[in-house]
Design goal:
- Helices cover 47% and strands 14% of the residues.
- A seven-stranded parallel β-sheet has the order 3-2-1-4-6-7-9, sandwiched between helices.
- The radius of gyration is 23 Å and the shape is globular.
Length: 350
């Protein structure tokens, strides 16, 4: 069945993980574009402040302070959206936590917690969204994955495992929906490294505070990708060409990628000179200081991605590439010596 999604200005959007980082960036931009938004996160004080700021700008927002890993939380989120706005059109699963270290250092308790938040909460959220959107007549489910679902990053074993599971979940959910013929779009967003408080929020077993390795992109690009998918059905969207190249490298040269990780990515994931804000540290089981879109660590950030734009407008990108190839061919033809004619593999000169 054809999936026709509403304009953002006509939508109600549920966003989990909305108190910081990509979730907060998406919430702010959705509200700016006229959508009504339900903000969901654990940190009640941060959510209230975000909501007050958005309402002062004329936005229509509601909040629900809840741990998405709690049993029954997804149904409570759906009920809150129905109570506040009569329902919802797009559900964005954005909440995530992480720990830095080896599998042995993390232990089972931390790994279970990461899977509970990053994967099982997304399962429950997706099912709650499906239940509501089936009766509503369509909409979008958008899951925030990662390029690390394609290639595990050393020192983040549980997070990478969760994101690999998220990719499989999203693919299975899409197939179920398509077999049922429902007009519901299912999109997986796969960001590269993004300049959010995510590493500062992480539990850390490394020698120095964690950081995101370069190249780092701005959270506004993730928000743009998510909100584009809320209006335009897409299977998946990579945010940042660097992450796509990492995925490609891993597929083509897996052992070489292992060695690069082992030799360089432990060091480049640590920031001894830029620890960030200590008040944000370790929100694995309890919320910490929140309410910021970007991290406080002072690293260079890319604010535009040609690869993202090409995925949003594939026809235009193909035309541009085709025109570029034609122009290059014409230039080469003009550069060729006069009187030179090529036929097959032979060159004949008059």
């Amino acid at each position: 069945m054809h999936k026709r999604l509403k304009r953002l200005s006509d939508q109600v959007i549920v966003i989990t993980g909305a108190s910081s980082g990509n979730g907060l960036a998406t919430a702010r931009e959705a509200a700016r574009r006229g959508a009504r938004v339900l903000l969901v996160a654990r940190n009640a004080a941060a959510l209230d402040q975000v909501a007050a700021d958005l309402r002062s700008q004329g936005a229509k927002v509601a909040v629900l302070a809840i741990d998405v890993a709690d049993q029954g939380s997804a149904e409570r989120i759906a009920a809150a959206a129905i109570e506040a706005f009569g329902g919802f059109d797009t559900w964005v699963n954005c909440a995530a936590v992480t720990s830095y270290g080896t599998l042995e250092q993390l232990g089972l308790e931390e790994q279970r917690r990461i899977l509970d938040v990053d994967y099982f909460a997304m399962v429950e959220g997706s099912l709650a969204a499906l239940k509501h959107l089936r009766t509503r007549g369509g909409g979008a489910i958008i899951n925030l994955g990662s390029v690390l679902s394609d290639r595990a990053l050393i020192k983040q074993p549980a997070y990478c495992a969760a994101k690999a599971a998220v990719r499989a979940l999203t693919e299975n959910l899409r197939m179920d929906i398509e077999r049922e013929g429902l007009p519901i779009s299912v999109t997986l967003i796969k960001p590269s490294g993004i300049h959010t408080p995510f590493p500062e929020h992480g539990r850390n077993h490394m020698q120095a505070p964690p950081r995101i390795p370069q190249i780092i992109y701005g959270p506004e690009l993730v928000a743009d990708a998510i909100l584009f998918a809320a209006e335009h059905p897409r299977r998946q969207i990579y945010v940042g060409g660097y992450g796509f190249l990492l995925s490609l490298l891993a597929r083509l040269f897996p052992r070489t990628t292992d060695r690069i990780m082992e030799l360089a990515l432990v060091r480049t994931q640590q920031a001894p000179d830029h620890p960030g804000d200590p008040a944000m540290r370790d929100n694995l089981f309890e919320p910490r200081k929140d309410g910021q879109v970007e991290g406080t660590q002072p690293f260079a950030v890319k604010r535009w991605s040609l690869f993202l734009e090409a995925q949003k407008h594939p026809l235009a990108a193909s035309l541009i590439l085709g025109a570029g190839a034609a122009a290059a061919g014409l230039w080469l033809q003009r550069r060729a010596p006069r009187g030179s004619i090529r036929r097959g593999t032979h060159s004949l000169s008059t």
